[in-house]
């Protein structure tokens, strides 16, 4: 990859370059990916031909102002260099190593920045919950993750304090790799979270982010990170948290929202009678008790979430796990999910995946 002209559009550097050109958005990039293989082919295309993919302003930014595209290319190369320096790699949505399970979700990230064996996500489930759980909530998260890890199931979470860190520690105690999805650039991790990340990697696990180097976490990025947690997981376990999936509420409920939209199974702990009055358990109780239609009304759900809930109809959204007696059936269910998922992943990556599902890395000004 010596020159900008030789860069494949479907590579991580190619995608980040296009997304770094101001005014060239997702729709235009979708059309360019469908029509050209390299940046050089875009630069050499006749203007009239290129305007089938982009408008005149976008065409001019790509073809008439080499400094604009050059800056975007330099920025993409800096991202690649920083990934190398930190021991990470950048995966394009078109790369064979990009997790098939994640590629299938709506608005899948176009580029992931990853360290560790990404195949560790194969037999993994998501664990989400409050960063301020009750003593019982933290215990429940640890014990559920431990029981699954004893049978080889890993944990995917956001590596947040409370329920999520408890689940990571449980899996690592059984020497099972875990996957942490972070909402910031790798170089912007706090010292404490950097220590957590090092522990995950030292235990053979994986750190994943869609945020480019230099990007800080913000509320929107933190919420959107949850679609990766549920998207990488065969099922999502919700332990404790607030009920309403509003922007200012507990972040963990958004993983449930995304799991619903992605049609992934959801499990909650069966709440013992002594813990029912704790408001942190309201979500788990309602997910297992209310029908999806009732939840749609309770959450005032709209658009894709409403459609996903109404498609479930009169069934509940989550299944409660009461304890040891439920684990044989749960593990049998998860094992079958894995068999089915592995069968799907054997299908070759299409030359023309669903470009509309491509989402720009956060931190770009595309």
Summarize this structure briefly.
By secondary structure, this protein is an alpha/beta fold. Helices cover 45% and strands 11% of the residues.
**What are the secondary-structure elements, in order, as H or E?**
HHHHHHEHEEEHEHEHEHEHEHHHEHE
Number of helical segments? 16
Uncertain stretches: 349-358, 362-366
Calculate Rg over CA atoms: 21 Å
Residues in helix, %: 40-55%
User: How do the strands of the widest beta sheet line up side by side?
Assistant: 1-3-7-6-5-4-8-9-10
- Terminal CA distance: 23 Å
The largest β sheet comes out as: 9 strands, mixed
Work out the number of β strands: 11
Mean pLDDT: 89
Structural category: alpha/beta
- Amount of beta strand: 5-15%
Outline type: globular
Could you please describe the fold and organization of this structure?
The protein is α/β, with parallel strands linked by helices and 366 residues long. Helix content is 45%, strand content 11%. It contains 16 helices and eleven strands. The chain has helices at 12-19, 26-35, 39-44, 47-50, 56-63, 66-86, 100-103, 135-149, 163-173, 191-202, 219-232, 253-261, 282-289, 292-298, 303-312, 327-345, and strands at residues 89-92, 108-109, 111-115, 124-128, 154-157, 179-181, 206-209, 236-238, 266-269, 319-321, 358-359. A nine-stranded mixed beta sheet has the order 1-3-7-6-5-4-8-9-10, sandwiched between helices. A two-stranded parallel ribbon has the order 2-11. α8 (135-149) links the parallel β4 (124-128) and β5. α1 (12-19) packs across α6 (66-86), α8 runs parallel beside α9 and α12 crosses α15 (303-312). It is globular and about 70 Å long. The two termini are 23 Å apart. The model is unreliable at 349-358 and 362-366 (pLDDT under 50).
């Amino acid at each position: 990859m010596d020159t900008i002209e030789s860069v494949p559009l479907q590579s991580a550097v190619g995608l980040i370059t296009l997304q770094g050109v101001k005014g060239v958005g997702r729709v235009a990039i979708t059309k360019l990916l469908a029509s050209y293989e390299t940046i050089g082919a875009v630069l050499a295309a006749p203007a009239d031909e290129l305007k089938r993919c982009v408008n005149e302003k976008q065409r001019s930014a790509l073809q008439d102002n080499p400094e604009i595209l050059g800056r975007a290319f330099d920025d993409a190369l800096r991202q690649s260099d920083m990934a190398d320096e930190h021991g990470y790699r950048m995966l394009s949505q078109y790369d064979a190593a990009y997790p098939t399970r994640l590629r299938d979700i709506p608005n899948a990230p176009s580029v992931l920045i990853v360290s560790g064996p990404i195949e560790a996500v194969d037999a993994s489930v998501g664990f989400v919950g409050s960063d301020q759980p009750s003593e019982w909530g933290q215990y429940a998260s640890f014990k559920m993750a431990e029981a699954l890890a004893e049978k080889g199931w890993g944990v995917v979470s956001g590596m947040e304090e409370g329920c999520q860190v408890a689940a990571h520690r449980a899996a690592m105690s059984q020497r099972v790799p875990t996957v942490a999805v972070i909402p910031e650039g790798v170089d912007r991790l706090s010292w404490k979270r950097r220590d957590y990340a090092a522990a995950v990697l030292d235990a053979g696990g994986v750190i994943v982010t869609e945020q480019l180097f230099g990007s800080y976490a913000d509320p929107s990025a933190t919420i959107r990170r949850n679609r990766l947690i549920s998207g990488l997981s065969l099922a999502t376990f919700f332990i404790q948290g607030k009920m309403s999936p509003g922007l200012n509420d507990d972040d963990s409920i958004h993983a449930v929202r995304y799991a619903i939209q992605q049609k992934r199974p959801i499990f909650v702990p069966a709440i013992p009678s002594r813990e029912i009055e704790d408001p942190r358990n309201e979500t788990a109780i309602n997910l297992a008790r209310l029908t999806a239609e009732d939840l749609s009304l309770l959450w005032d759900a709209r658009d894709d979430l409403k459609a996903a809930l109404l498609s479930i109809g009169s069934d509940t959204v989550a299944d409660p796990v009461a304890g040891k007696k439920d684990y044989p059936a749960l593990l049998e269910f998860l094992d079958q999910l894995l068999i089915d998922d592995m069968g799907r992943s054997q299908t070759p990556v299409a030359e023309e995946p669903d470009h509309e599902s491509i989402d720009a890395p956060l931190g770009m000004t595309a």
